Amino acid sequence: MPSPSYEEIDAVLAALVGPPDAALEHALAASTEGGLPQIQVAAVQGRLLEILVRAIGASTVLEVGTLGGFSTIHLARGIRPGGKVTTLELDAHHADVARANFAVAGLDDRIEVVVGPALESLAKLKADGYGPVDFMFVDADKPNNTNYVRAGLELSHPGTVLVVDNVVRAGTVAIDPLPDDYARGAHEVISFMGSHPRIESTVLQVVGQKGHDGLLFGLVTS
Fold first, then answer.
1. Model's pTM, two decimal places?
2. Residue ranges making up the domain that contains 73
3. Considering the domain boundaries, does residue 1 fall inside one?
């Protein structure tokens, strides 16, 4: 008997840990209809983000890379009452699709979408006195991973949790020399968080509907 594919396994696991979800299904469909790239987190990974946010009692969550808002919905579902997710998106069309998805999910009052280059948005947030953040999720252009985490660290406090997606990249992060800017971005952010005196970190390889990749986790300690 042939082994099930990663995609088939992910579908079974997602069904086991959560019932069908109309809002999330709508977000995926609307993103496809809107022509957005199908690069959002897998359902089980979105569920992990939601659980982590809820577990630490987060009320202020920062996301870099909104896309159609699939991960953002999970983050917003995990925050404490009265909390807010601030999500940064470069593409105005993606942001419009995401805002519509948040409205369908009944979460638009918990989410603020900031449109523009993320590093500029992060600098403005800091200048405006935003933060500190309890949880930060980075899933945007990979060469800027370390810049995003560095900026987020300036908005953090002891206990802030940092998560970066797509850091294994089918193993290319472990090839010497690193084959492309995406692998270099992944390697750099892992090294940055692994050696930073204020962060305890680890990497988890994952397989699933997105193939072989991984997540980087960090805890700000001081």
1. 0.96
2. 6-220
3. no
